[in-house]
Amino acid sequence: MPEGQSLGARIRRLRRTAGMSQSELAGGGLSPSYISLLEAGKRTPSPDVLRQLSERLGCAPEHLLECLEPEERPDALQAELRYAEISLRNGDPAAALETYTAVCERAGAAGYEDVRIAAEFGAARALEHSGRLEEAADRYQRLLDAPDAGRGSVPRLAVAVALCRCYREIGDLAHAIELANQVLEEARRLQLTPTVLGIELLSTLVGLYCERGDLHRAASLARTAIEEAEGVSDRKALGAAYWNAGVVAHRGGASADALPLLERALALYAEGDDARALARLRNAYAAVLMRSEPADTATAKAQLLRSAEVLAEEGSTVDVAYCETALARAYLLEADPGAAREHAGRALELLGTGHRLETARTLLVLAGAQLHTGEAAAAEASCERAALLLEASQADRQAAAAWQDLAEILELSGRQDKALWAYRQSLRCLGQQGDLGPALRGRAPERAGRVGS
Predict the structure, then answer these.
(1) pLDDT tens figures, 44-59
(2) Contact yes or no for 89/314 (Cβ under 8 A)
(3) Residue 198 CA to chain centroid, in angstroms?
(4) What is the percent of the chain where pLDDT is above 90?
(5) Which of 163, 125, 113 is nearest to 141 (CA)?
(6) Tens digit of each residue's pLDDT (9 = 90 or more) over 374-415
(7) Torsion (CA) 423, 427, 429, 433 in degrees, nearest 10
(8) Cα–Cα dist 374/386, whole Å
């Protein structure tokens, strides 16, 4: 770029024309050394600094802004952010991540902090979309821990919701619940009325308590979420509240109550343009249909196949894995273990080798298919691994059910001693422990001796 057109040269020329020194141009908010580096072309000012300088130099901000290279201008960077968002929505998280990362680096170097934060958030979402949950969680956590978190272009609550979602899928329910409660308490201290993002975070917390098995607290918060969502008049927020309330009712054994709640959520989401969320909601609805009395497997499969089409284009790897697991369960209910194994295998491949809450549920479906084909040992191994994964996630109610499934498999195999052990593991996960256990174990040898005397 010719000297007369560089930003530093233009600032220097305007300063000299105005008869100002570098110290006078710096004013109270900048340093003379910064002005010197700026005029030498060794610094790129942020939009706020450009506005300050233009006021002191008596020119329009655009007169200075036009000197920046196109890739350094905020409008050009914003256009790239929009391109990255389109890539992410079109199911190309790799391209989105590449663009977000490039924008993040250039915006940081140019001092455009709002653009950098938006790009950092986008990069985290692209990583999550690709199933790289640990990396995504690290990025979300950095954004949340930043001193000015929530003051820029990305709300703090939005970051918290995304981070809780990652921790949930990774299987760290305790951390996710602690974080959600902490941020929710902060939001309520600062705001007098509920917000859409606040309701989304509350709904996320409902789901977390539900996963952990604390259904009483989940149900109470679900009612609060519905009340607050009705107050803000946002259809998506209300749909999310109904969605989680339906899941809680289902986990509590009230599938008849869950269905109308999920149907209300489906109606609300169908009016919007979030195809991915609607597909994920169909997965939840199908799960309830399959566990209803009587099970409506045909309708559930139809919902899942519609969901699979959408998620193949717009869903994350975890979204698709959820759908594959649900399809495996549907085929298992139809006594087609071959198809069930195929879909469960796809789900496990998508979930990878990391600790995933959904991995445990997929393993349980796989165990059912293996049992149907006479592979008792393989079913036992799948079931035990699932139970241990669920315990590690502190999903105690689900772990208890998995241990019970294992006990029943062992009984069918004639292994009564180990079946009894698995039943005890199930009771332990539910917090059941006999008062006399230690005393009886201590007296058992003596009692045996008395009988033999």
Answers:
(1) 777 678 888 888 999 8
(2) yes
(3) 16
(4) 51
(5) 163
(6) 998 999 999 999 999 998 888 888 889 989 988 988 888 888
(7) -130
(8) 19
- Going by C-alpha positions, the residue among 403, 400, 397 that lies closest to residue 383 is 403
Cα distance between residue 90 and residue 447, in whole Å: 71
**Angstrom distance (rounded) from CA 27 to CA 33:** 12
Higher pLDDT, 193 or 323: 323
CA dist 119 and 110 (Å) reads 14
| Spatial contact of 381 and 359, defined as CB atoms under 8 Å apart | no
Cβ distance 170 to 355 under 8 Å?
Answer: yes
**Secondary structure element (H or E) that encloses residue 11, with its range:** helix 7-17
Of the listed ranges 271-285, 293-307, 410-424, 432-446, the least confidently predicted one is 432-446
Quick one: which H or E segment has residue 366? Answer: helix 357-372
Between CA 373 and CA 389 the distance in angstroms is: 24
How far, in Å, CA of 263 to CA of 266, rounded? 5
pLDDT tens figures, 97-113: 999 999 998 888 888 88
User: Above 60 in pLDDT, residue 451?
Assistant: no
In this prediction, residue 38 carries a pLDDT of 84
Residue 297: C-alpha distances to residues 96, 332, 341, 372 (Å): 37, 10, 17, 18
Residue range 65-92, pLDDT digits in tens? 777 655 556 778 888 899 899 888 888 8
End-to-end CA distance of the chain: 105
Cβ pair 321, 345 in contact under 8 A: no
Sorted by sequence, the CB contacts under 8 Å of residue 237 that are 6+ apart come out as 196, 199, 200, 203, 229
**φ and ψ at 256, to 5 degrees?**
-65, -35
Q: Which single residue is written with the structure tokens 């606040």?
A: 198
- Closest by CA to 117, choosing from 137, 86, 144, 93, is 144
Q: Give the model's pLDDT for residue 245.
A: 94
| Phi-psi map region of 19: left, alpha, beta (phi>0 left; psi -120 to 50 alpha) | left
Structure-token match 């717009």, residue found: 314
Asked if residue 249 lies in contact with residue 257, where contact means CB atoms within 8 angstroms, the answer is yes
Q: Strand (E) positions, 131-240? A: none
Quick one: angle between helices 196-212 and 215-232, nearest 10? 160
Q: Are 154 and 114 in contact (CB under 8 A)?
A: no
